[in-house]
Amino acid sequence: MHSFGYRLNGLLTFAVTILALMCVIASLSDNLNIPSPSAEIQIMNINWFQKQPKGSDEVSLRMNISADLQSLFTWNTKQVFIFVAAEYETRKNSLNQVSLWDAIIPAKERAKFWIRSSNKYRFVDHGKNLRGKEFNLTLHWHVMPKTGKMFADKIVMSGYSLPEEYI
Amino acid sequence: MDWQGQKLAEQIMQIMLLVFAVTAFVAGYVLGSFQMMVLVYAGSVTLTGLITIPNWPFFNRHPLNWLDPSEAEKHPKPQVTVISKKKGSKK
């Protein structure tokens, strides 16, 4: 530590190492948070339900999505990414998941909301299996931290079904 | 700085950084603000740097006693005589 440069280097190196440790502990502190989110989705209307010219079924629906995700936010949260997926079973696949809508919640104040929207992304099947199909709507969320580990979870809402015939 | 001063500077630096790091973390956690933690820590790193890096006088309280120049002249350095040895020749 016999010169200005040596001391400066030692200080900066030690400071950055400690900063890295602080970020690790901050990420670990996220585990102390026990979230209690809630959500509800209503299908307000089936806009149309048709077979595409070359074969697959497609449906457009209007949803009312309401959720309270404020308990997901901690001091170490940058944003929460959420998306709604329709899940159903067909003869060929035990699980089909189609993402219908997503959003980014940048702050805790915006995490309690309701929104009425038709599906952002097309609800298309691989085949013609959607007539009369029962499906679940799942709200997934990814809590993206400022530093450290990302947590992801979901709420499954069941009991939705499509009409028996094309509209 | 003298030797004692260097040791003191290093100790002060390590202790200050650790203490301020804990303070910054607690402040950020309690206030629920990550930005506050980083700001407090950045400020404390600057403060620590201002205290430990420049050559302040209190780091020089045990100065080394170099030999006085007039005293050194009285005891000249011994001359080293170079003996060159040639391989294979013995006289």
Automatic annotation (TrEMBL), chain A:
Q: How does it sit in the membrane?
A: Single-pass type II membrane protein
What's in the keyword line of the UniProt record? Endoplasmic reticulum, Membrane, Signal-anchor, Transmembrane, Transmembrane helix
The record's subcellular locations are: Endoplasmic reticulum membrane
Looking at the UniProt record for this protein, which Gene Ontology cellular component terms does it annotate, in alphabetical order? signal peptidase complex
- Which terms does the UniProt entry file under GO BP? protein targeting to ER; signal peptide processing
Function text:
Essential component of the signal peptidase complex (SPC) which catalyzes the cleavage of N-terminal signal sequences from nascent proteins as they are translocated into the lumen of the endoplasmic reticulum. Essential for the SPC catalytic activity, possibly by stabilizing and positioning the active center of the complex close to the lumenal surface.
Q: Which organism is it from?
A: Gossypium hirsutum
Q: Which family does it belong to?
A: Belongs to the SPCS3 family.
**Does the keyword Transmembrane belong to this entry?**
yes
**Protein name as it appears in the record:** Signal peptidase complex subunit 3
Q: Which Pfam families match?
A: SPC22
Automatic annotation (TrEMBL), chain B:
GO BP annotations listed: protein targeting to ER; signal peptide processing
Q: Which Pfam families match?
A: SPC12 (PF06645)
Q: What InterPro entries does UniProt report for this protein, alphabetically?
A: Spc1/SPCS1
Tell me which domain of life the UniProt entry assigns to the organism this sequence originates from: Eukaryota
Location comes to: Endoplasmic reticulum membrane
Record region (Disordered): 70-91
Protein name, per record: Signal peptidase complex subunit 1
State the organism named in the record. Answer: Gossypium hirsutum
Q: Which gene encodes it?
A: LOC107946272
